[in-house]
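Tutorial sheet, problem 5. The two components below are modelled jointly, 205 residues in total.
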Amino acid sequence: MESSHFTAAVIFALSTSVVFGVTSRNTDAERLRYGAQVFGIFLAVLIGGSWLMYLLRR
Amino acid sequence: MNDTWDSASTAIGELMARKDEAVANDKAIPIGPMVAGWLLPGGGHFVLGKVGRGALLLAAIGLLFVFGLLNDGRFFEPAAGSPIDTMGFLGNLCAGLFYIVAKFAGYTSAISASPHSDYGTKFLLIAGLLNVLAILDAHDIAVGKKS
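Model answer (C-alpha cells):
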C-alpha cells in the first residue's frame, strides 16, 4: 500500500488525538473537546506548514 | 524524663505506621489492568469497566499499527551497540499482542529507502508509544487518581 504523505499525516493526527483526548481529561465532554482541539491543531500545522514550504520553494 | 521517652516512642510509632502505609501503597500497583493494557491496547480500560474508552484506544492504536504494517514498516531489533535500535525495539514491544502476533506470524520487511516504508516504521513505533499512555491511564484509573 502506498499512501500519500497527507493521508499518513491525517491518520497519525486522528489516532494520536483520540489517544490524547481519552487519556488526558476527566469528563467525556472535556475529552471530546481536547481531542478535537488537538486534531484541529495537527491539521492546521500540517496544512500551514505545507503552504509555507510551497511558498518558500517558489 | 518519662514524658520525653513517651513522645519519642509515639513519634517512632507514627513513623513506623507511615512506613507500613507506604509499603502497602507500593504493593497496590494494579498489575492486572496494566498487563491487560499492554497485551491489548485499551485492555486495561476493559478490565476496569471503561469499555467505551477502551474501544476508542483499541481502534486508534490498532489503526496506526495496521497502517504501519500495510505500509511495509519494519520492526526494530535490539542491538548491543545501537541504543536507538534497542529503544525502538522497546517501543515496538509496547504494542503488546499486536507486535507479538505480527512477529510470530512471520511479518518481515526489508529495509527500504521508500518513504512509505518509513511512514510504516514510524507508525508501528508510535502505536507502541501511544499504548504506554493508555497503560498509564489504566493505572491512574485503577488507583483512583482518575475516574
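Marking note: The mean pLDDT of chain B is 88. Full credit if you identified this.
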